[in-house]
Amino acid sequence: MTDPAPQSRIRKRNTQAILAAALDVFSAQGFRGATLDQIAAAADLSKPNLLYYFPSKEAVYLALLGSLLEDWLQPLRAIDPEGDPIEEMLSYIRAKLRMSRSHARESRLFAGEVLGGADHIRSVLEGPLRDLVDEKAALIRVWMEAGRLAPSDPHHLIFSIWALTQHYADFAPQVQAVLGPGRDPVAEGQCFTETLFRRMLTP
């Protein structure tokens, strides 16, 4: 009997190579400007080989966005209902800032999709994303009503965390240009956001 493991490893390796190449190409060219030929070349695969794994440019793009969104949402999922509310929220903010450093291209690609109307991921935004945000907003509201967090609108609190933390990825050239050389925007941003949100969240 043929061992399927080598084929599975090859599939996984090639799929990862395609998605890594697609991130480079889509980040530089956008969805409209990117081509399958560019992605295949960046992945060091032939175009027919790429099409064996993904039937179209849109399929590659959707798989990439799905993977990025899963990574992006993981810190939100990790907010623990049994933890200390302020520390759980600050931990989420720290994780989002770390991702602004480690996943800057991914953040900009996602932002570009949303700014373009989110046509490719609208069902995700209106389905799983909204469900998760509603779930965490409900938890935050419970903490607020128990006097464990300062009162505010939980949904807009989450939006403000997204806006501030992702700014360091989506507008990195602007931030670095304003701060000047030798400054670390994310490290400084962590100090600032820690102070800001601790004050905002403390009852």
Number of separate strands: 0
**Gap from first CA to last CA:** 65 Å
Proportion of strand residues: under 5%
Mean pLDDT: 93
What does this structure look like?
The structure is a single chain. The chain folds into two domains: 1-55, Orthogonal Bundle (Arc Repressor Mutant, subunit A); 64-201, Tetracycline Repressor, domain 2, CATH 1.10.357. The chain is built from ten helices and no strands. The chain has helices at residues 5-33, 36-43, 47-53, 57-77, 85-102, 104-115, 122-145, 154-170, 172-179, 185-201. The mean pLDDT is 93.
What brief labels describe this structure?
single chain; about 200 residues; mainly alpha; Arc Repressor Mutant, subunit A; Tetracycline Repressor, domain 2; 2 domains; globular
